[in-house]
Amino acid sequence: MDAEDNVMASHEDRRAKDQQVDNAIRAIQQKKPLPEIDFTIHTMEDGTQVSTMERVCKGMPRRHTRPPSAGLQPTRLTLPPAP
Q1: Which are the contacts of 39, defined by CB distance < 8 A and separation ≥ 6?
Q2: For 71, which DSSP code?
Q3: Host domain of residue 12
Q4: What is the pTM of this model?
């Protein structure tokens, strides 16, 4: 009886694997196309859409793109000796 049980179990395992492969193939064949996303448009919390190519807050200064000049070195703090 053990040999028959092993054959039945292996047959059921094979059928389950075949079903998984069939499901995977069907999912790939029936895959929906990806939506066209325009990454240059951002929707704000209030629903308005703004371009990411332009500055939203025109009153804000631009961030600095140059590193600080070499003449400005960080100062080192010296603490008095502990009592």
Answers
A1: 52
A2: T
A3: 1-33
A4: 0.36
